[in-house]
Amino acid sequence: MPELPEVETIRRGLSKRLIGQKIKSITVLEKKSFQIADEDRIWLEESVIKSVRRRAKVLMIDLDSDYTLLFHLKMTGQLIYREPNSELTDNRNFAAGHPTGDWLMDLPNKSTRVYFEFEDASKLFFNDQRKFGWIKLLPTEKVMEQKFLHELGPEIVDFTQDKIPEKISESTYKQVLSAIRRHNNAPIKAVILDQKVVAGIGNIYADEGLWGAKIHPATVVKDLTDRELRKLLREVKASMTRSIESGGSTMQTFVKADGTKGNYLDLFANVFRREGLPCPRCQTEIIKIRVAGRGTHICPKCQIKH
DNA sequence: CTAGGATCCTGTCAGC
DNA sequence: TGCTGACAGGATCCTA
Q: What secondary structure does DSSP assign to A92-111, as a single string?
């Protein structure tokens, strides 16, 4: 579920709240979600959080023990930070990730897999309905050697900057285009979802970018020009930027000011989960199809297969 | 090497 | 009201 913009939103939110905090205790309710050996726990308890980083969809919390906690939220992960004795919507609190009502519930609940308590009595809950997500611990200097991080393709731009860069660098274009072209017979949507080709694109931003570039997701790579592929990367980047700048999938966007439930996709999405609604460009009804084994949303008029 | 499908899990929703 | 199957904002593993 959470893609690069969602994880970046979490990074920004937790960075403000966690740096300098000392871990007092960790409660593991689901072993599968906490892939850390008992003997390595000494690197966690009593350690202080130094920084919060991100690479692709992986969140990294660096500790003063020179170990790093790694989080992957996969489809249904959430991170929920709560101050003691505070109202749920108090802006000292923070929740982001898969948008469900867990954000507003007493915690831990049945989806809570692991939670951390800090010295000031604040808590960080890792909730994950489907249990695909995980937490790992590695020496900080070994983090980037891990296969799943080492093999990642480039990010389109550096989204961790406060001011997100306007332009994609020429070296990134070249690197990503040559990686895309290694999959000449595959549908373009499948290729941009491959984290080894380009890091951080998931189902939402794939659909949004393809709509922006007017490319049918089932078009095979060899039928696309470099110009079309460059346009696609620009559109993905624009959609991700709008998502991050609108606050992403946070509790603040989930609960509207009048108390009703909002949908953060409304803040930036043109096609994703909008089947049956008019295309914002040509008013044709958006349809849902299957491409690369994933639900896929397109405008059947704007996005014609080559 | 690439391409495509099954798989890990829990919950929800449409259709009978 | 059950029940059943499809599906879900991810990525790996297996086979051809």
A: T-EEEES-SGGGGS-SS-TT
